[in-house]
Design a protein that fits this description.
- This protein is mainly α and about 300 residues long.
- It contains ten helices and five strands, in the order αββββαααβαααααα.
- The strands form two sheets. It has a three-stranded antiparallel β-sheet with strand order 2-3-4, with no helix packed on it.
- The protein is globular.
- Keywords: Disulfide bond, Plant defense, Signal.
- One of its GO terms (cellular component) is extracellular region.
- It comes from Streptomyces naganishii JCM 4654.
Length: about 300
């Protein structure tokens, strides 16, 4: 069994069973994002208030609310266009548009918001932002394809098999398991698990995930950030990070090896590998780019 996580295909749990979420179109505005006041959690906002979130992007209150997170509470907040876009026609600056994202994940859980994903991009600006337009789109497709496999199409948020929950605490670590023996089960788009991974991801992101691992299942942007943390910084059982695999054109197969190669690669589980490859090929087609070579591991 992988020390990183148990495959979400076997161990994930649907939270809420919500229908796919389609966000309203962003409002038009020529104002600078920096001109709006910073969003403050717990502060009361009225309909029409505009704030700057922690990712530097602006949001407008669609309904009065007591300071809900704009990237989660999409009933109360909408993205508000300002000068933080990249000028590529997509206000988020991401190479995957919201329409393409919804096409990739037609049955996704509403927890996995597009705005949560784009809010997380600031943590790793090199992700889907390095190399040619083709390479950037290939990397985005590769990340989302692996995420799709791990979460059943962005349906599953946490592990299904609760009997596993107590297994993910390594008490030999000096910081122990302050949130409890059973608190470090798999969560999020790449099913982050184990106390030492929550500690490492939290330290990298500046978030206390060791003390509050539940943030990964309660805050969409945090969940996406943990997925991007693994993608951009961890090689797992592979020899390179998934980000480096795509940017250096080692091929999609190397991203599989870095994520779950000890259980799937070298003929161990060809069906699981094929599932990831199928998703990657489908997503590159949606983005209008070639998948490249070396698709298998």
């Amino acid at each position: 069994m992988s020390r990183r996580h148990v495959s979400a295909a076997l161990t994930a749990l649907l939270i809420g069973g919500a229908a796919p979420l389609v966000l309203p179109a962003a409002h038009a505005s020529a104002a600078s994002c920096s001109s709006y006041p910073d969003w403050v959690a717990g502060k009361s906002y009225r309909t029409g208030d505009i704030v700057r979130y922690t990712d530097g992007r602006a949001y407008v209150a669609e309904h009065d609310n007591p300071g809900y997170d704009p990237t989660i509470s999409t009933w109360f907040w909408d993205p508000y266009s300002c000068d933080s876009g990249s000028g590529n026609g997509n206000p988020s600056g991401f190479v995957v548009s919201e329409a393409q994202f919804n096409q990739m994940f037609p049955n996704r859980n509403s927890f996995y918001t597009y705005s949560g994903l784009t809010a997380a991009l600031s943590a790793y600006p090199g992700f889907a932002g390095t190399g040619s337009d083709t390479v950037r789109k290939q990397e985005a497709a590769a990340f989302l394809a692996n995420v799709s496999h791990e979460t059943g199409g962005l349906v599953y948020v946490v592990e299904q098999n609760t009997a596993n929950y107590s297994h993910y605490c390594d008490w030999s670590r000096p910081y122990g398991c302050p949130a409890g023996q059973s608190a470090y089960y798999g969560r999020g788009p790449i099913q982050l698990s184990w106390n030492f991974n929550y500690k490492a991801a939290g330290d990298a992101l500046g978030i206390d995930l060791l003390g509050n691992p539940w943030l990964v299942q309660n805050d969409s942007a945090v969940a996406w950030k943990t997925g991007l943390w693994y993608w951009n910084t961890q090689s797992g059982p592979g020899s390179m990070t998934p980000h480096d695999a795509m940017v250096n054109q080692a091929g999609f197969g190397q991203t599989i090896r870095s994520i779950n190669g000890s259980l799937e690669c070298d003929g161990r589980n060809p069906a699981q590998v094929q599932s990831r490859v199928d998703a990657y090929q489908r997503f590159t087609q949606i983005l209008g780019v070639s998948p490249g070579g070396n698709l298998y591991c």
